[in-house]
Specification:
Chains A, B: Residues 12-142 form the Nudix hydrolase domain. Two copies of one chain form a homodimer. The first copy, chain A, is of the alpha+beta class. The first copy, chain A, has helices spanning 58-70, 104-109, 130-147, 161-172, 178-187; strands at 13-25, 28-35, 45-46, 49-51, 76-83, 92-101, 115-119, 158-160, 191-198, 205-210. The structure holds a DNA duplex (27 and 27 nucleotides).
Chain lengths: 224, 224
DNA sequence: GCAAAAGTGTTGTGATTACACCCATGC
DNA sequence: GCATGGGTGTAATCACAACACTTTTGC
């Protein structure tokens, strides 16, 4: 039996993957952009990404392009949305966009050439529809921080409650009550207190580590 | 200036759109499947869908294939996920999957040939990875019903609180307290009481209509 | 001692739950 | 009348926010 394509394999549609990578730095949310070296939009800043190879899964493409940018594995990676409007590029391109979180220390360790990290509130003009894509990724991030534990994805293995609170505050853009914040996260069962403290200023703060028995976010029946 | 494709236009990857269409019938969630008329998986049941035309937006393709199945416009339509694993089809196919809600009366009015509606708890074996896709769509539906008003998408323009409660109960798979349910939805501001009542058995029940000033679900910065 | 962050205690408020109870209709 | 679903009332509970207060460090 033969397989009969209904459209020719050359359908005029190409498939790309881009990734919105978030990290945290000095209480700000930052993301890496690459400068385009060819048309269209040569010279403009764009999200890191690449074409999907016929023998490579979408997730793998996202991981690969992410590694090529930050040099290391993310602490969280999730598909965001498929953008495929006709006018978003001179040729017809469907972009499967992912979003990722990388820890602050990981991001700092692997700075690359022609990659620059920008504060999300001070982004330059972006190529294609990437401004809209970043807006949507930010919306998802702010939403998801309210009902999951993804904020931990920004932090190194050991951290204080003030560190974690700072992450929440920079994502949500508002101050949180330290006392109530402490109780909320203590009751969530996602943190394991250690016997170590961070000293240096004022009263030492206890260091916590993440309880890896609980997922950063519920993903439903999708394979992880 | 010339555009230089990095991969040839014939990348060996084709782009399709499929849609998981939900409706409600006798307290059960049902969805339409089409029988495949060619290989691969000839004769098996599959989600309605089609190839993306180079001149057609993804949303438009979803609406079109949905119309070809149910014959009418959905009350809710949202992108679900892009499935693109290597092994999911003999050829490399990236499927942008949407999910939709259609009102019970709309679904009943437009029954089509070679389309059959199945109870989601009694699905046959499906082609490709469509079983997994339906599982994920159901998970999203059950989640979203908890924090949005999409359940209204199943109902005709006028309905009783018992109708609405039945929708919630069939989605969530559990009974809800009628008294508390009433207060919750009355306080949500999404319902407008009418002066009409449904009679026929016991005490007549007031008919409500949906307040179209509030969206069925918050979609963030994505264009609707 | 003093400032400041770490950490604890207390109180009020609003949403949710469980359930008792009344109302209006068909039979 | 009586069974049944429509609709109201109410008290207990819980999560959360606001804020006063104590503890422990650096200087």
């Amino acid at each position: 039996m033969t397989i009969t394509p209904i459209t020719p394999a050359d359908s005029g549609i190409r498939v790309a993957v881009s990734t919105v990578i978030f990290s945290q730095r000095d209480g700000r949310i930052v993301l890496p952009l690459v400068r385009r070296t060819r048309d269209p939009h040569e010279g403009q800043w764009a999200l890191p990404g690449g074409w999907v190879d016929a023998a490579e899964n979408l997730d793998a493409t996202a991981s690969r392009t992410l590694a090529e940018t930050t040099g290391l594995a993310p602490s969280y990676l999730e598909q965001l949305y498929a953008f495929g409007d006709i006018g978003r590029s001179p040729e017809r391109v469907v972009s499967i966009v992912y979003w990722a979180l990388v820890r602050e220390d990981v991001a700092r360790a692997a700075e690359q050439h022609n990659v620059e990290w920008f504060d999300v509130s001070e982004l330059p003009e972006l190529a294609f529809d990437h401004t809209q894509i970043v807006d949507y990724a930010l919306w998802r991030l702010r939403n998801k921080v309210g009902y999951s534990r993804i904020a931990h994805g920004f932090l190194p293995s050991h951290f204080t409650l003030a560190d974690l609170r700072e992450v929440y505050e920079s994502i949500l853009g508002k101050r949180l009550d330290p006392a109530n914040f402490r109780r909320q996260v203590e009751n969530s069962g996602t943190l394991i207190p250690t016997d170590d403290f961070r000293t240096g200023s004022h009263r030492p703060a206890r260091l916590y580590r993440y309880n890896h028995d609980v997922e950063l976010a519920e993903r439903g029946p999708l394979p992880h």
